[in-house]
């Protein structure tokens, strides 16, 4: 849990103090690429296919 | 013959009144599943009386009749009947007296107790026509997690005007409509922006669905529709549809779709595989079925910790509750609120019905979601999945970055977001009603500076006065449960476009912890190269970062900052018009840069006392205009009645001291930062004219 004593201001300061260096950027790039792959896989899985279009409802 | 009959509400009287209507030969009306459901629903909302309107011309049935039933040799005619339900006991005398003299108190009494109506079609078995029943009262209460789409239906009962909040239900007649047809019909009704009288009847929807689709059987009776035919029917209604195969969708993603669209007042057509639960707990597949999802319940307050959907199922009735179950080897287990399911976990929906004693009966069917079709307005072209992905990334990246700063966050819900589709007028209504938060609610000693307040005010004005697309997906971010900011995704954009239309900050104290981090990244040396190197086709994350990158100041912004935004001349005097045209000030001079002129020569008439003052103004394109005030002709004659910025008078005091002020009723009247603009104007004067060593020019403060 977030420490109770932490205030919004502390989080803002933390955000301002984040170091943006090459190492962090490489990690972020890896994260974004992994996420993109997941999103693409999900989009492919959920995309309407021919089977989807021919699915019928009769109850 | 009486045109209406009134009975106390009971299962038997309900059945008898229906039977009375068309002398139905259907043997046991009250054992019909939909009638049982509707009876229990009405009992739950406290129905006390039923009024039968014996002859009613229903638009929907009339359409179906003209398309199909009219050519049946033994048809029962085109007239329907209508049952009205009330939560007060009423009798014939009451209604007769209301009809002879309708007093407002009686109308109010009748309206308060009105629970809705059900059309009875002159068909033997599938007689339940358009049915609008009042929604349970505990829905749609402010800040409630129990939401349902409804719209207002106006009812005219023998001239008495009544209203009911509902979404129309009807059962499929198995001839001109299948389950998918009624689910489309219900979805069209749930779109409150569509006029009710323009919603096509089921026979028309079916005809639209089966026309122009290869291998469609272009005739009635019609017992089924395919997804392609559903989409075709929506095309004919000029609706944009977003469709998803749900075969492998996670429980969480499915819930996101439901919540986002219900919050956006968009109904969802859900295709399911219906499975019967056998006595031994095994499941046997029945067939595909289509229902319309209209609401959800994420009830966290009561002991019942389950999530439910509310849907119109034409096999049962309106607002049927469906709860989520995990399916584990012949056993069903309720999915609890806040529970996260593994990807491999099979889950389904169980429709819930109440027994005679009012308690929930055990589920006898499980519905496995198979497809989702979301009908939306034509302009809503951007699927919400791009918005989900972008918000998910923003949250993930924030948590990952903050972790590098040494803050340990174990509760990922520190950042959360809600997404809904809103039209721009609703968005602006919310923003104009919002107040600028100047104190941190969690630490009241923390205040923002006057400059920051001013900047937030300017942002608010800029946001409200800018043009936007008609519809936006609005992602509202919360930091530690407090509303922080909203990101507007232009819903009319294409996925390849730049959809981020704006970011509005509601609470700077809650926004800064997130946005400051992304601003720092966006303005770092790495961001451009980084954004270019990451291929992102499924999100607008790059657009979000680009949006936060501080734009380089352009010339117009610089002029606005230094001399104020443009103002049109507030009014014009008669003395400033000649021959229907504005008088041009013949003494006008215009300067853009250093003039090589001595100021005391330029304003010699002030120094020698032949003029009391001269006029000055900063033009739209940043030029300094100066001139004499001749015959009571003021600043508009100097600017040619064009828009301009700060303007005022030049005075000579004495001892080589010049002053300028912001006295211009036409241009400078409403600037808040007059002194700042005057100070900048002084610098501009000094850059244009030569001042002797012993000369000074100052501004007269407007705050005196």
Give short descriptive properties of this protein.
A: 59 residues; mainly alpha; B: 704 residues; alpha+beta; Cathepsin B, Chain A; 4 domains; nine-stranded antiparallel sheet; 20 helices; 33 strands; elongated
Strand content of chain B: 25-35%
E-strand count of chain A: 1
Uncertain runs of chain A are none
Q: How much helix, percentage-wise, in residues of chain A?
A: 55-70%
**Termini separation of chain B:** 86 Å
- Class of secondary structure makeup of chain A: mainly alpha
DSSP strand count of chain B: 33
Question: What spatial form of chain A do the alpha-carbon principal axes imply?
Answer: elongated
What top-tier CATH class of the largest domain in chain B fits best?
A: Alpha Beta
The appropriate CATH architecture of the largest domain in chain B is: Alpha-Beta Complex
pLDDT averaged over residues of chain B: 91
Q: Alpha-carbon distance between the termini of chain A?
A: 49 Å
Q: Biggest interface between protein chains, with counts per chain? A: A-B, 44 and 71 residues
Mean pLDDT of chain A: 86
* Main sheet makeup of chain B: 9 strands, antiparallel
Q: Could you tell me the strand content of chain A as a percent range?
A: under 5%
Which spans of chain B have pLDDT < 50 for at least 5 consecutive residues?
A: none
| Biggest β-sheet strands, sense, barrel of chain A | none
Indicate the CATH topology of the largest domain in chain B.
Cathepsin B, Chain A
Description:
The complex is a heterodimer of chains A (59) and B (704). Chain A is mostly helical and 59 residues long. Helices cover 68% and strands 3% of the residues of chain A. Chain A has helices spanning 8-17, 22-46, 50-54, and one strand at 56-57. The mean pLDDT of chain A is 86. The mean pLDDT of chain B is 91. In chain B, 40% of the residues are buried. In chain B, strands 6, 10, 11, 12, 13, 14, 15, 16 and 17 form a nine-stranded antiparallel β-sheet that branches. In chain B, strands 26-29-28-30-31-33 form a six-stranded mixed β-sheet. In chain B, strands 1-2-3-4-5 form a five-stranded antiparallel β-sheet. Chain B has 704 residues and is an alpha+beta fold. Chain B has four domains: 1-166, no CATH class; 173-378, Cathepsin B, Chain A (Alpha-Beta Complex), CATH 3.90.70; 385-551, no CATH class; 559-699, no CATH class. At the A-B interface, helix 1, helix 2, helix 3 and strand 1 of A face strand 9, helix 8, strand 10, strand 12 and helix 10 of B. Strand 1 (56-57) of chain A pairs antiparallel with strand 9 of chain B.
């Amino acid at each position: 849990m977030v420490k109770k004593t932490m205030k919004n201001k502390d989080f803002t300061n933390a955000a301002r103090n984040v170091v943006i260096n090459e190492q962090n950027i490489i990690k972020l790039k890896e994260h974004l690429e992994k996420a993109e792959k997941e999103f693409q896989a999900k989009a492919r899985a959920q995309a309407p296919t021919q089977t989807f279009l021919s699915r019928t409802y009769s109850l | 013959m009486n045109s209406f009959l009134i009975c106390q509400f009971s299962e038997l009287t309900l059945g008898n009144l229906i039977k009375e209507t068309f002398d139905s030969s259907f043997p046991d009306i009250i054992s019909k599943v939909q009638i049982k459901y509707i009876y229990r629903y009405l009992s739950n909302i406290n129905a006390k009386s039923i009024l039968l309107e014996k002859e009613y011309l229903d638009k929907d049935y009339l359409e179906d009749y003209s398309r199909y039933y009219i050519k049946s040799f033994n048809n029962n005619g085109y007239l329907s009947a209508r049952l009205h339900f009330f939560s007060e006991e009423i009798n014939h005398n009451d209604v007769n007296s209301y009809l002879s003299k309708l007093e407002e108190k009686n109308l109010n009494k009748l309206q308060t107790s009105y629970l809705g109506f059900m059309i009875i079609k002159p068909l033997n078995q599938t007689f339940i026509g358009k049915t609008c029943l009042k929604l349970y009262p505990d829905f749609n209460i402010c800040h409630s997690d129990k939401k349902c789409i409804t719209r207002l239906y106006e009812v005219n009962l023998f001239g008495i005007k009544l209203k009911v909040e509902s979404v129309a239900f009807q059962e499929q007649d198995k001839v001109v409509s299948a389950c998918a047809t009624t689910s489309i019909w219900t979805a069209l009704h749930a779109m409150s922006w569509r006029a009710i009288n323009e919603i096509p009847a089921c026979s028309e929807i079916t005809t639209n669905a089966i026309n122009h689709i290869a291998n469609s059987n272009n005739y009635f009776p019609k017992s089924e529709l395919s997804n392609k035919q559903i989409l075709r029917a929506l095309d004919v209604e000029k609706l944009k549809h977003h469709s998803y195969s749900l075969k492998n969708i996670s429980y969480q993603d499915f819930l996101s779709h439901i919540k986002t669209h219900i919050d956006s007042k968009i109904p969802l057509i859900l295709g399911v595989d219906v499975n019967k639960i056998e006595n031994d707990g095994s499941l046997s597949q029945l067939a595909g079925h289509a229902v319309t999802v209209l609401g959800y319940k994420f009830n966290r307050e009561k002991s019942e910790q389950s999530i439910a959907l509310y849907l119109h199922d034409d096999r049962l009735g309106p607002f049927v509750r469906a709860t989520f179950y995990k399916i584990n080897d012949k056993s069903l287990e309720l999915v609890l609120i806040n529970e996260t399911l593994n990807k491999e976990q099979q889950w389904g929906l169980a429709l819930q019905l109440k027994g005679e004693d009012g308690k929930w009966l055990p589920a006898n069917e499980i519905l496995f979601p198979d497809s989702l079709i979301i009908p939306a307005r034509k302009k809503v072209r951007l699927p919400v999945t791009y918005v989900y992905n972008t918000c998910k990334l923003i949250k993930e990246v924030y948590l990952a970055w903050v972790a590098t700063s040494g803050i340990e966050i174990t509760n990922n819900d520190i950042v959360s977001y809600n997404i809904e589709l809103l039209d721009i007028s609703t968005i602006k209504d919310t923003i104009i009603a919002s107040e600028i938060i100047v104190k941190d609610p969690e630490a009241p000693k923390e205040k923002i500076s006057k400059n920051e307040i001013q900047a937030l005010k300017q942002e608010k004005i800029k946001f409200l006065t800018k043009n936007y697309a008609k519809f936006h997906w609005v992602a509202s971010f919360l930091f530690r449960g407090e509303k922080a900011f909203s990101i507007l995704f232009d819903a009319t954009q294409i996925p390849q476009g730049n959809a981020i239309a704006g970011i509005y900050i509601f609470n700077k104290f809650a926004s800064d912890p997130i946005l400051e981090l992304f601003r720092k990244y966006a303005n770092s040396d790495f961001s451009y190269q980084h954004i270019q190197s990451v291929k992102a086709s499924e999100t607008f994350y790059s657009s979000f970062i680009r949006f936060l990158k501080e734009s380089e100041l352009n010339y117009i912004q610089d002029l606005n900052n230094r001399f104020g935004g443009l103002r049109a001349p507030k009014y014009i005097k008669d003395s400033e018009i000649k021959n229907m045209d504005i008088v041009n000030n013949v003494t006008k001079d215009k300067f853009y840069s250093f003039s090589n002129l001595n100021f005391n020569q330029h304003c010699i008439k002030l120094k020698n006392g032949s003029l009391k003052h001269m006029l000055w103004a900063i033009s739209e394109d940043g030029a300094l205009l100066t001139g004499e005030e001749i015959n009571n002709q003021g600043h508009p004659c100097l600017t040619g009645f064009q828009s301009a910025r700060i303007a005022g008078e030049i005075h000579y005091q004495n001892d080589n001291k010049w002053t300028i002020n912001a006295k211009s009723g036409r241009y400078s009247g409403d600037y808040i930062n007059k002194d700042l603009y005057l100070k900048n104007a002084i610098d501009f004067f000094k850059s244009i004219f030569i001042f002797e060593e012993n000369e000074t020019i100052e501004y007269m403060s407007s705050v005196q």
